[in-house]
Amino acid sequence: MKKLLAIFAFLGVLAFNSSFTYAQADAAAPDSVSAQPTSEVADVTEVASDEAALVEDEKTFHQQVKEYFIQGGPPFMWPILFSLVLGLAISIERIITLNMATTNTKKLLTSIEDALAKGGVEAAKDVAKNTRGPIASIFTQGLMRHHEGIEMVEKSIVSYGGVEMGRLERGLIWVSLFISLGPMLGFFGTVIGMIFAFDAIEAAGDISPQVVAGGMKVALITTVAGLITGMILQICYNYLVSKIDGIVNEMEDASISLIDILVKHKLSK
User: For 44-80, how does the pLDDT look when each residue is reduced to its tens digit (9 = 90+)?
Assistant: First the structure.
C-alpha cells in the first residue's frame, strides 16, 4: 500500500512539474514572437504572397475568361458573345464561299479560246458551264447572247456582273452590324455599371474604393469585351472586302479579255 501511495505521489509531482513547465513556456511565447525580427515576418508575408500568385498563375485561360465573363455580368456579356459568334459564323461562311469563287482566269480564258477555235461557241459555253465561280458564270451569260452581236454580249456581261457582285457582297451588312453592335453593347454595360456604382455610393453614404470598384469593374469588363468583338469582326470584314474587290477586278479584266477573244474569233471567221 505504501509503495502504491509513493508511486502515485511521484506521478503527481511529475504531472505538476510538467504543467508548470508548459505554463511558463506559454507565458514566454508572446515575448519570443515579439522578439522575432521584422525581417522574418516580412519573409513569411512574401512567401504567402508568392504562393497566392502561384495559385493565380495556375488558372487556365479558359477559367480566367469564365471568371471575367461572370464578373462582367451575364445580362451584358451574353449579347456581346452572341454578336461575336454570329459575326464570326457569317464571316467564316463568306470566307469559304469567296475562296471557292476564286478562278484561274488565265487558264479559263485559254480554255475558252481553244474551244472557240476547235468547236465554236457551243464548246466554249460547255467550258464556261463546267467551271466554278462568278467569272465563269459571266462568260456563260455572255456566250449565250453571242448571236445578238458583240454589243449585246457586252451588255449581258455588265448586267450579270452586277448580279454576281451582289452575291459576293451578301452577308457583309450583317458583319457590319455586329461590328457596330458589339462595342455599343459594351458601352451600354459600362453605363449600367456606372449607375450601379453610384447607387452603391449613395446607399453606403461614403466613397470608398471597395464600393466604387465593383461597378467600375463591371463597366470595364463589358467595354473590353465589346471592343474585342468589334476588332475581331473588323479584321474579318476588311479581309472580305479586299477579297471581293480582287474578284470584281478579275471579273472586269476577264470580261474585257472575253470580248477581245470574241471579236478576234469573229474577225478570223
Answer: 455 455 554 544 556 686 777 677 667 767 788 888 9
**Domain spans, the chain:** 78-268
Tell me phi and psi for residue 59, to 5 degrees.
-70, 135
- Return the closest-CA partner of residue 193 out of 227, 220, 211: 220
Q: How far apart are CA 226 and CA 192, in angstroms?
A: 14
* Predicted confidence (pLDDT) per residue in 207-224, tens digit: 666 666 666 777 788 889
Provide the grid cell at 214: 465593383
126-129 long-range CB contacts below 8 Å, 24 or more apart?
none
User: Hey, how many other C-beta atoms are within 10 angstroms of the C-beta on 184?
Assistant: 15
Sequence-distant (6+) residues with CB within 8 A of 224 are: 186
Locate cell 480554255: which residue? 111
Cβ count within 10 A of residue 234: 17
